[in-house]
Amino acid sequence: MSSESPNPVSPDTDDTGEAVLTTFHDGVGRLTLNNPRRKNAITLEIAAAIEEFCDRVTADDNIGAVVVDAAGSYFCSGADTRILAGASADPAAPESVAQLSAVYRAFVRVGSLPVPTVGVVVGGAVGAGLNLALAVDLLVTTPDAVLDSGFLARGIHPGGGHLTLLNRAVGRADTIALAVCGQSLSGAQAVERGLAYAAAPVPDIPAIVADLTGPASRDPELTRRVMASVRLELGPPAVTWDSAIEIERGMQMWSMARKGQNWSSRGPGRS
């Protein structure tokens, strides 16, 4: 971890070899997914690093805001397919449940942080990557970024509370359009639907992020108290996020068993 001020735009390489890059500066914690060669797919190592970062933020009362972004030209392509293929081999096995739960837990932790979180999506977010984008409080994206549920295209049921996350962002109709009918949103459309806070070209994003995190980071104690009230008063929808994960788990495991270990295809019977 570094106390240096983070770069306004994430690096294009992963030369450090670290799964996640973290910085803490002037009351702002930044978490950068650092697996660009795999479009920042969430591995078990990345999931563990996200949890470690969240532990640090939760424990450090001097942190008043968090930024979540990614190295390279694509925010997150979802859970690493090697995790999904392993779970498909024996979906009911304790190890399969534990590995998928580790991925889910990572973005649940981001969505439960005691400070406002700002996500930066460049390129796109799909599947569990969209879950991570939906877990932040405020999403800033590029107008041409693609936000895609992606589970349908993979031939599996959504997981990680995906339907609840979408519903609380865009409502029932758009949730069905995205998760069941295979539609996607551009960054500009995401702003129109209320899923994203702002869409802007990459050079303009750092200023937007600074405007959002600056006031919150200057008085972390007050920020944390206000956010505690936000979480208590606004809360999740009628079904809690944890409940949604359990509701979806059985159907996702069923769909993985149906698919088997053929993760080179987009869905059952497809090449």
From TrEMBL:
<dbReference type="InterPro" id="IPR001753">
    <property type="entry name" value="Enoyl-CoA_hydra/iso"/>
</dbReference>
<protein>
    <submittedName>
        <fullName>Enoyl-CoA hydratase-related protein</fullName>
    </submittedName>
</protein>
<dbReference type="InterPro" id="IPR029045">
    <property type="entry name" value="ClpP/crotonase-like_dom_sf"/>
</dbReference>
<dbReference type="Pfam" id="PF00378">
    <property type="entry name" value="ECH_1"/>
</dbReference>
